[in-house]
Design goal:
alpha/beta; two-stranded antiparallel ribbon; 2 domains; about 325 residues; single chain; Rossmann fold; about 15% strand; 11 helices; 10 strands; globular; 4-stranded parallel beta sheet
């Protein structure tokens, strides 16, 4: 869908009067709109009670195909600060956000990750795999960018934001250490992670796991019959017995893969549901960045034969996770 500049300017003009008054002027909070739940969580962890954060994309929402709604446009134009990921994650919103950045405070925090640490992809010349949150060591750069953006928007509170960011970064480093320790318990022959789309490349690189996605790095790419057939043969030949579904991606390709393997006499199971492009339920531990990754790490390691605690790093995972 092409960006409708006339419609955008018309709606922007219509909301100008509303934008003149911050949404939470009564509390003095900084009004932030974030595209993804992962970025929204970083803003909340850093901003604490000094910010009011709205995430456009909630539980189970696929950012690759998400398009801004009329209410999103109102929220975005009224925000004191807009935080988006970039790296072509919000592919359908990118042109709109770039236009908005010409007159509002809009920051693509995912693009703070150094280029030499990004994974390029043959399907998208000049583009990179945007799923950097899958590697805590890379998400550190994004958290720092969020802290900088908040500090720039409210300089009088920058020292508070910096202190909160430091505490959150300590948790992220601890999560990374947990991942390294638990993924190392998986037998080498079992270190294969097959998921609905190629969202776990950074995870695999960080923790020495081979990653196979049925679809490409965007869920907009399609997996044809030849791709499914080829993967069925691969699974059978290598005796791979666990595959994973994703909370924000249809499981139809995974189901087709299992059916195809079963038809060849190869038994397979679903190792669990992973959070790829969106976090868990709002208000839950899995609905935070730390909880999201704790769930993924624990679920993957357990399904592939590793040794993990029943309820994750700090015993906070939902029963059955």
């Amino acid at each position: 869908m092409q960006f409708d500049r006339r419609a955008f300017l018309g709606l922007l003009s219509a909301t100008t009067a509303l934008a003149a008054t911050p949404l939470r002027a009564d509390t003095g909070q900084l009004n932030i709109v974030a595209t993804t739940s992962m970025i929204a969580d970083a803003a909340r962890q850093i901003g604490g009670d000094l910010v009011n954060v709205k995430a456009l994309m909630g539980v189970g929402v696929d950012p690759h195909s998400y398009r801004q709604t009329r209410s999103d446009i109102v929220a975005l134009t009224r925000a004191d600060l807009v935080l988006w990921h970039g790296l072509y994650l919000e592919a359908q919103m990118e042109e709109f956000l770039l236009k908005l950045a010409q007159r509002n405070e809009v920051v693509a925090v995912g693009e703070a990750v150094p280029g030499d640490k990004l994974i390029s992809h043959a399907e998208y010349e000049g583009r990179y795999d945007p799923h950097v949150w899958m590697a805590p060591a890379l998400w550190v750069y994004v958290v720092r960018a969020v802290a900088q953006a908040l500090g720039d928007a409210a300089p009088d509170r920058a020292s508070i934001f910096a202190a909160n960011a430091k505490a959150h970064l300590a948790d992220i480093h601890r999560l990374d250490a947990y991942a390294r320790a638990k993924m190392a318990t998986i037998p080498q022959a079992e270190r294969v992670l097959l998921t609905a789309h190629d969202a776990f490349g950074y995870f695999g690189r960080a923790y020495d796991v081979e990653v196979i996605g049925i679809q490409g790095i965007s869920t907009e790419s399609e997996a044809g019959l030849n791709r499914i057939s080829g993967l069925v043969n691969l699974l059978t030949e290598r005796n791979i017995r666990s595959v994973f579904i994703e909370s924000s991606v249809s499981d139809r390709n995974i189901r087709a893969l299992i059916e195809g393997a079963t038809a060849q006499g190869h038994e397979m199971t679903i190792g669990g549901e992973l959070y790829s492009d969106a976090m868990g339920p709002e208000g839950s531990y899995e609905g935070t960045y730390i909880g999201m990754l704790d769930h993924n790490i624990t679920t993957i390691a357990r399904a592939l034969g590793g040794d993990v605690p029943d309820r994750g790093m700090d015993g906070k995972l939902m029963a059955g996770s």
